[in-house]
Amino acid sequence: MKITEVRVKLVHNNCQKENKKLRAFAWITFDNLLVVSDLRIIEGAKSLFVAMPNRKIADHCLRCGNKNPLLNHYCGNCGCNLDEDRQNSDINSCKRFYADIVHPIDPNCRDMIHKAVLNEYFNERELAKQPGYVSKYCEWGEWK
Q1: Under a CB-based contact definition with an 8 Å cutoff, are residues 40 and 48 in contact?
Q2: pLDDT computed for residue 140 by the predictor
Q3: What's the chain's Rg over C-alpha atoms?
């Protein structure tokens, strides 16, 4: 399996109201056949890392049956209080609010993805410094 393309969309500082550690989004293509989107480049305590796509874990409101993320305190449909103890726990009894959608199983694959995405991130940052810079990426989901 080979990485055939990596695209990076830089996140500007003025767009980072909620997540000040988010630096960019990335999309990676394997063998010109499979695209994995919504990877995130995040500034960790020691260095940058590539976070894989994930989704919020949800359950249903007991009153109306509406699906709500575990982080919600109130139902998005009927507004009733949601039970705080409804949150799932993993084996180590840590509360889990997100589940990975895609993740590499092999450490070598993880390293390959990490290096390719960060390399393109640094390239895109350098390109962004040039006058007249236009990202390969226009609107969310559209490519030039």
Answers
A1: no
A2: 46
A3: 19
Its pTM stands at 0.71
Going 84 to 88 to 93 to 99, the CA torsion angle's sign is negative
End-to-end CA distance of the chain: 25
- List domains and CATH numbers for the chain: 3-53+101-128 (3.30.1120.40), 56-97 (no CATH)
Please write down the HEC assignment for all residues of the chain. CCEEEEEEEECCHHHCCCCCCEEEEEEEEECCCEEEEEEEEEECCCCEEEECCEEECEEECCCCCCEEECCCCECCCCCCECCHHHCCECCCCCECCEEECCCCCCHHHHHHHHHHHHHHHHHHHHHHCCCCCCCCECCCCCEC
Which of residues 96 and 111 earns the better pLDDT score?
111
